[in-house]
Every structure is written in C-alpha cells, then in structure tokens.
Specification:
The complex is a heterodimer of chains A (about 110) and B (about 120). Chain A is mainly beta and about 110 residues long. Chain A is about 0% helix and about 50% strand. Classes of the chains: A mainly beta (about 110), B mainly beta (about 120).
C-alpha cells in the first residue's frame, strides 16, 4: 500500500505569511493527489485535486504543485480563515486511498 | 444541493456489530463511486472503504478487511457499512463521502456518525 507522509505536523504562522506544506508518497502516484482543509467539528473540504487543480470557489492564494512522490500545498498569504488542519490524499487507485497524517496550521 | 446524511452510529460493545447508512440526495447517486472515511477522536483521517458506481468493485483498508462490508442500493440512493467484530480502535466519527466521479477524491462529505466501541 502507498504511504503518505506530511510535514510538518504542526506549523505556527502569522496572518500574511507564506505557508508551505509537504506531502511525500512512498511510491510514484503521478499527479493523483488531493488536498483537503478541515476545521474543528467540520467535515473535510476539498481544495485541490490532480496535484494542482484548484476547486471552484477556493481562493487563489491556495496552490498545489508536484508530481511523482513529492507534493506541496502553498498558501501565498495566510488569512484568519485559513487556520485549520490540512490533509493530502493519494488516489492512484480510486478504491485504495491513503491520507497523510495532517498538518495543523496554528496562529503564531 | 448535494446532501449526505449518515446514521446508525452509537455505543457498542467490543465484538458486536453495527450497520451504518448514508442517505444521498441532490445528485445522481448511481453515477458515482462512494467512500467511507473515519476519524478517531483527535486523530487524522483514515480511508475505510470505497465502492464503484454499480457495486462491482470494492476496496478496503487493511485495518478493516474481513470485518467490514460496504454496499450500496442505487434504487434507494443509499450507502451502507456493515461493521462486524468491532474493536476499541474502531471508535471514530465515520464520514460518508461522494467521489468526484470514479477518480478517488471526494468533493462532498456528510457530517459523520459517531461509533464508540466500549464495554
């Protein structure tokens, strides 16, 4: 099975900061990677699919990049609404999925 | 408006069974793969199981293989998860999630149903 490793697990940042979260796959997944945002007590929300495709309605300060085994989620200028936990998820096989461990973005 | 409403969670003793349901509306249910994803208290997301649009293909996480069974009834717009031989480590909030088609990423999620396994 494909393992997904996210780093860091926690990130402290200020409003306006540029934030980067990394996700590594244990084997190549081409660009079959999604990013989700989850706030406390809420269901996850899809932000990005196919590594870099932004979901309609998601602010353009969010961007994704990478292919193969290494991927990044970047928030260009952190906003108060962005403090949340972010998860990557591989879908190399649509019936054998794996999530990363999550990155909690906290207020510095 | 897409809606996914899970039900069937509760407190159950170790070794017992529970069946979760997910009622879907607002989209053509029969066209999409579906998934169950769980989240233990204070922990991350864990994919549990997925099923193709017609139920012909199914996948399970190793942690539940042989104990859990996913199914769907397209006539009733419903997804199910039969959970047998429950363990304490199965305690989690269980989400029903709609696949974007049959790609593997989920564009809509329910609010979850809580399963607590404890004696």
């Amino acid at each position: 099975d494909i393992q997904m490793t996210q780093s860091p697990s926690t990130l402290s940042a200020s409003v306006g900061d540029r934030v980067t979260i990394t996700c590594r796959a244990s084997q190549s997944i081409n660009n079959w990677l999604a990013w989700y945002q989850q706030k406390p007590g809420k269901a996850p929300k899809l932000l990005i699919y196919k590594a870099s495709s932004l979901v309609s309605g998601v602010p353009s300060r969010f961007s994704g990049s990478g292919s193969g085994t290494e991927f990044t989620l970047t928030i260009s200028s952190l906003q108060p609404d962005d403090f949340a936990t972010y998860y990557c998820q591989q879908y190399n096989n649509y019936l054998l999925l794996t999530f990363g461990g999550g990155t909690k973005v906290e207020i510095k | 408006e897409v809606q996914l409403v899970e039900s069937g969670g509760g407190l159950v003793q170790p070794g017992r069974s529970l069946r979760l349901s997910c009622a879907a509306s607002g989209f053509n249910f029969a066209d999409y793969a579906m998934h169950w994803v769980r989240q233990a208290p204070g922990k991350g997301l864990e994919w549990v199981s997925g099923i193709s649009w017609n139920g012909g293909s199914i996948g399970y996480a190793d942690s539940v293989k042989g104990r859990f069974t996913i199914s769907r009834d397209n006539a009733k717009n419903s997804l199910y998860l039969q959970m047998n031989s429950l363990r304490a480590e199965d305690t989690a909030l269980y989400y029903c999630a709609k696949d974007s088609y049959s790609y593997g990423y989920s564009d809509y999620w329910g609010q979850g149903t809580l399963v607590t396994v404890s004696s």
